[in-house]
Amino acid sequence: MTAYDFGTSAAIIIATLIMGTILFLPKVASSTWWRATVTPLASIIGSGFLVLGPILLREYGKLAPLVMLALCGVAYLFGNAVRYNIRNYESKEKQLPHYVRLVESASGWMLSFAYIISVAYYINLLGSFSVSLTSFDSQTAARIVSTSVLLFIGFFGYLFGLGKLENLEETAVGMKLSIIAGLLVGMILFAVALFFRGEVVSNPIHAHSMHSLYIAFGLVICVQGFETSRYLGEEYDSETRINSMKWSQWLSTFIYAVYVYLMSVSFVGTEIETKETAIIDVTRSIAIILPYMLVVAAVAAQFSAAVADTAGCGGLVHELSKTKLSMKIGYTIVMLGGLVLTWTANVFHIISYASRAFAIYYALQCAVATLVAWQHEKLHHRVRYCLLYGSLTLLGIIIAILGIPAE
Question: Can you give the pLDDT at residue 407?
Answer without folding.
Answer: 63
